[in-house]
Design a protein that fits this description.
Length: about 80
């Protein structure tokens, strides 16, 4: 079993900041899986999407409520 950890951000902040944030988010998830749950690191892969895959219309300069921004701040796990 392999797990792909893909992390995302909302569109607030700069593109570079959001890429770094999503990378840190995916690394944190992987660390948790390895340290707390004993998953072998060799079975884990990460990808940082930043604000690239927004799930709703809350992109740059579009005003959205906090609940909608929060929906885009996520980490997805694909188990293969």
């Amino acid at each position: 079993v392999n797990i792909l950890v893909s992390s995302h951000t909302d569109s607030r902040g700069s593109y570079a900041y959001n890429m770094d944030l999503s990378l840190r988010r995916s690394k944190s998830c992987i660390n948790y899986l390895v340290q707390k749950l004993g998953v072998k690191g060799s079975r884990l892969n990460k990808i940082a999407y930043g604000e690239f895959l927004i799930e709703n219309g809350c992109i740059d300069d579009i005003e959205c409520i906090e609940k909608l921004h929060r929906f885009n701040r996520r980490t997805d796990f694909v188990i293969k």
